[in-house]
Amino acid sequence: MRNIIIAGNWKMNKDMISTDEFCNTLAEYFSNYEDDMVGVIVAPPYPFLQSASDVLTYTPVEVAAQDVSVHKDGAFTGEVSASMLSSLGVVVCIVGHSERRQYHAETDDIVRAKMLELWAQNITPILCIGETLAQRDANETNAVIVAQLEGCLKGITDISDLIIAYEPIWAIGTGRTATPDQAQTVHAMIRSWIFDHYDKDAAENIHLLYGGSAKPENIGSLLMQKDIDGGLIGGASLNVEQFIAMINTANEILNTRRDK
Ligand code: 13P
């Protein structure tokens, strides 16, 4: 049975002090929690990766980066390589976020190259895909998602170390969440694409996260869906109480699944 993953993408938010406060509160929460847990990931900005890792060392929380360079090293001012992330103990990294695609012209080929760099360092990519509102309105959602999967996973035969996040662009930061049905439909389509292009094990084991205005009020109904294995949360992950509320909801859902 797949676990549930609650991942917080902080984007370009917080500073050293607020990172510390957030991570200390989260660490304290985990010190009181004994049950089997959902997977928890936080993705702070680069400058705070080290301190977040330090504070969260004795917790199950994994610290993720939000991006990585396609290059190994060299004259690429401002870039951060996969081996640098690895040397900090980073084990997960977001790639292909729509904000990177939109503001930094990241193509599927670039995203794919970044994933290869991450895998070479044993870092798990969280591959983000999703359609714009215009594409959804034109009934192009499936075609867009399939094109992104084909482009990003071209020639990649092993996806056992991969998380995919479906993030409809029209739902990101807009307060307009995809309905559980809308999200489930796309997640089911992604899983069936994986079944067709890889195998049953790959389709059954891969975690498919939903992202886009997820928050404590709606995370439960999203996680109740069969093919939604967690959330990649932006705005609502910045507040530690809200983040913990979503972890608690995910734990309750995981426990009911286990009781069945
Ligand atoms: P919001 O939760 O703020 O809509 O952001 C979602 C997201 O982009 C996570 O990567």
Characteristic terms for this protein:
single chain; 260 residues; alpha/beta; TIM Barrel; eight-stranded parallel beta sheet; 8 strands; 45% helix; globular; binds 1,3-dihydroxyacetonephosphate
Overall shape: it is globular
Number of domain modules: 1
Tally of helical runs: 11
Helix content: 40-55%
Strand order of the largest sheet: 7-6-5-4-3-2-1-8
How far from one another are the termini? 12 Å
Q: pLDDT below 50 for ≥5 consecutive residues: which ranges?
A: none
CATH level-1 class: Alpha Beta
- CATH fold category name: TIM Barrel
What about the largest sheet?
Answer: 8 strands, parallel
The CATH homologous superfamily name equals Aldolase class I
Order of helices and strands: EHEHEHEHHEHHEHHEHEH
| List of distinct ligands in this structure | 1,3-dihydroxyacetonephosphate
Strand content: 5-15%
Mean pLDDT: 95
